[in-house]
Structures are given as structure tokens and as C-alpha cells.
Amino acid sequence: MKIGNIEFGQRPLFLAPMEDVTDIGFRMLCKRFGAAMVYTEFVSAEALVRSVKSTMNKLTICDEERPVGIQIYGRDVDAMVEAARMVEAAGPDLIDLNFGCPVKKVAGKGAGAGMLQNIPKMLEITRKVVDAVRLPVTVKTRLGWDSGNLIITELAERLQDCGIQALTIHGRTRAQMYTGQADWTLIGEVKRNPRIRIPIIGNGDITSAEDADNAFRQYGVDAVMIGRATFGRPWIFGEVAESSFGIPLTVSDKIDILLEQLRINVERIDEYRGILHTRRHLAATPIFKGIPDFRQTRIAMLRAETVEELTEILERVRVQLMT
After folding, report:
1. Is 62 a catalytic residue?
2. Which of 29, 174, 176, 288 is 20 to 30 A from 317 in CA distance terms?
């Protein structure tokens, strides 16, 4: 599988771009455990053009995580073009256009999945961004706005005609948000279309090796993207690929990884924001599920304000899990 000049090999697994999730520390850990491609948190084109500091910080990448993509979203053509040029200057391996984010503050303003209600503008943005940069440009979108507008099979061809070099499809409509089950049938239909020449990346409800194998075998996708199942679980890529990273990870190993993530975030940002970035993963990690009377410990973990305090809590949890 190949995007532009980037070679990924067979059955690659990608980390989905996610706000407040795919910071640099998390991306580096996912890469270590087998993610073939990682993406930054998605970036607002309008905020980037205005040089908002917090948005500019999202452009920070490092060589250890390559190949890495930066994803932008917006509804204004000129802002998207200018933002794409700014992103190119940051040196990622590709630029991804977000036409799939369903949240109200994005889609409700006409950006992200909101573009599924304005296909002419979506295509105009795509064409102009492709023409404005030298990096490969890719797109991530959904099946359509709602069940009455499942337009992805036709839309995929039109986006390909704009010059994109890969297309990621999340198997839900915007109306579904993240509810129900992802429908991969239309993703497979797009992939089987003889007129489609670009790689098709499938996304939605991949949580196990069996899920990924089914996506590759039954629907023929070129790559699989994993999103919410990675929360607090950067080692999932090794588990899903059934790759050998030595002896299987113990619960204690996984706590070590979460502590490493905390250290990376604090070193690269600062103590306060590094802890905030890590809390989301600690709240979602599956390794704490089933611990009796864990609620108070979870609350304490999410209220911790120093690395020392949070580390002490995690060490107590380690002892609890190993006894």
C-alpha cells in the first residue's frame, strides 16, 4: 500500500486523528507498537491563519513518529488553502482534509462532516488545496449526512478526480455521530469500484485482530484506521496486528507505558497541560475495568495536579492489580 511516495507494506494500521487525544507523546507510543501512520490532532484552518498559539503548537512533529500526517478542517476556501501551505511548511509527510468530524461545534458550522451538505464547496476546497501544495493530499469523510443521503460511492470518485492520493471512510453518517455499528458495506463498494485507483482506508469499530482481518478480507481496504479503541491503549496496534513485540505485555507493563506517556507529555508541554493530556487516556484505558470500588481512585486520578501525585496513585493501582 502506498500514498504518494510513502510505502506502508501489507495490511497497515493507522492511528486516527483525534482532538485532545493524538498529541505527540501518544503518537510516538502508537508508532512504537506498530502504527504504520499517525496523525496529529485536527487543526482549525481559521485558527491557524490567525496564528492562534494553541493551534500552532499542534503542528509540532518529530522524525521518530514519521510517517505523520497533519489534518486540517474549515469551511472557507481561502483559509483552507492558506492553512495547507502553513502545514506544508511544518514538514509532515501528507496533509489530510477533515470532511468527517461530526461534532456540533465543527459540523454545525459547515466544516468537517458539515461539508457533506455542501459538496460543491468540499470539492472546490479539495481541488485548490491539492493545487496549492506539493505534499500528498488525502481526505477523511463519512458515508453521507444521514441514512437518506448515502453519497460516498459517487463522492469518492469526485474526490479522486480532484487529485487526492488516498481516501479514508468512516462507516457512519454524520447523523449517527458515534452511535450504532459502523457499516462497512459501502466502504467495500467504494473499494470494489473499478474506477477507483487511490487507496481506500476503512475506519470504524476496529477493536481486535479479528475486526481488522475481516476489514481487509471482506471489504478489501488498503489500510485500517483505528480511533476510539486506542484511548489509553497505545499497544492496541501490536494486539490488532497480532505482531510479535516480544513477551506479551503484562498489566504492570501497561502501567509503565501510561507513566511513560505522562512523562513524555510533561516534558514536551508542561506539567499542568501534560497531565491534562494524559488524564483522558487514564479515564478510558481498559486495564482498570473490573477493579472493585474503583470509582474513588478514578476520581482521585482525574483530579491529580502533579506528576508525583498521579504517579503515586498509579503505583497503588499497580499493587492492587497484581495482588
Report:
1. no
2. 29
